[in-house]
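Shipment paperwork, digital attachment
Item: protein structure file
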Amino acid sequence: MKTAKKHIDTEHLLFTTANTIFLIALALVTVYPFANTIVISLNEGLDTIRGGIYLWPRAFTLHNYRVVLSNNAIYHAAFISVSRTLLSTVLNIFLTTMLAYALSRKEFVFRKPITILFVLTMYFNAGLIPNYFLYRSLGLINNFLVYIVPSMVYAFNLIVIRTYIGTIPESLVESAKLDGAGDFKVFLRIIFPLCKPVLATVALFVAVGAWNSWFDSFIYCTKQSLSTLQYELMKLIAIANISNSNSALLSDAMSGGAAAAKNFANPVSIRAAVTVIAATPMVLIYPFLQKYFIVGLTVGSVKE
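Attachment content:
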């Protein structure tokens, strides 16, 4: 008996040790690229070209961030990005949840055909040119609404939320209707509050997608007043690449002493600073949604 117990304890210890080592290694592999990006963003551009920078800046400087933040267009673009992210997330959550609730009701006759139509959009896309003509016919070109209207409902989010609603006991809905509540009141008072975990998960998906998007600004908005933060940062990287592609600039920086070295804008360092600035808001928001993320994703993605 003691031998068997000792054998079990040994297996448990080996498994725990191996599992811990594996998870630590996985965490290091996951965290290191972002940590290295932060270090490069805090290192002098000319020194970065030499390589060999890993976990600590060799020549500390904030010049890369000064270059990025000295662009006045970035601040207005940040306002546009924050606005589109908030509006897209709120509207997508509310409208998608309403539609998901309607499609989850068994008494709704057309719920299966409509669900199939939404699923088909996940596999087939008309393409960029038809989308452009559609948006132009709707008056969305060079319009702030081009950031909002196309993102109101996503088929994937609809399926996830509808599946989650299916796990809510039907007795709650029936009790509310016996008390005289209509569908809209049931949705607001019962369904919406109980969907908090899956809504937090979907909100994170939508917010990250809206915040990181820049291609729609490039295609549909030629006005500088509608440019987003990601698009401005992308243009800044392109300018840094062009300005430093001339080998004469590199030679001048190398022969100009410490002051010239500090003011040298290396595209790699600028790209790292841009990455840190762009990722910081999402990194700060994620811890508040983490407790809902796993529950919402696992429950909302499996249909029994």
